[in-house]
Every structure is written in structure tokens, then in C-alpha cells.
Amino acid sequence: MTVKGEAGYFTTSTTGAQDYVLYVIQLERQVKEWSFVGGYAGEAVTQGADNPLSFTPDRGFAKSFVGRVALTIDVNRSLAVETAVRGAGSFVRFEYSQMAGQHWRVTPGVAWIRGGSADFLGQYHRNSYVSLAVRYSF
Question: How far is CA 116 from the centre of its chain?
């Protein structure tokens, strides 16, 4: 088991802006071909008042429980599920990756975003998507 942590302090001299700390605490566990990661992304305001007109996407995932489960099926294929759950919003992404020949990798995926309009994640509930990535490595 691995315990990981990271923190960043953001400060400014701009009047009316907040100074704050963002942090992440995670536990990671490898079991054979499985990888399990779970944790919490938080924030602490150190100075200043909240400005309703400010947009801080880096703080949008704060106060969220985050997780990732990945399975290496074999050397050519893998599967991953990632999530963030916060207040009235949630984000889930599924991804499957497979080699297609010696140099090509194809990765289809789907992301599902849900929540209330007052929550940062919920504001993007219409942005759920399906993706297809094709990568050439030489």
C-alpha cells in the first residue's frame, strides 16, 4: 500500500481575491494486474472573501472523493475507470485501450457527468461525451 499526498498554496496581492491551499491525499494498492487508487481532494481558504464572479477550475474538484481502478488485461489491452464525487455532482470515465498492430493504439472511452446546477461538476452535466483516441508510436 502506498500513501501519497500533495499540496499547493495559492496567494495573490489582488484585493478581494482569496488565498487558499489545495491538497490531495491518496491511497494506492497494486494487486497483480489491478491498480486501486482512492483519495480526497480538499481545500482550505486562508484569507479573503468568496467572490461569486470568480472562476477557478482548479478549485472545482476540491472537496471531492476521487478514485481510479485499472486492469492490465495483457500487454496489449487495458481497462480503466476514474471517478470524482463531490456534493451534488459526479464524474465517471470508462476507458478501454488496445494495441492495433505494432505501432498503433486505439482507446475508446465514455465520460458521464451528473449533478445539480449549484455544484461545480453538475454545471457540466450536458458535457458527457464519448471519445476515440488513436495513437501512433514509433
Answer: 18
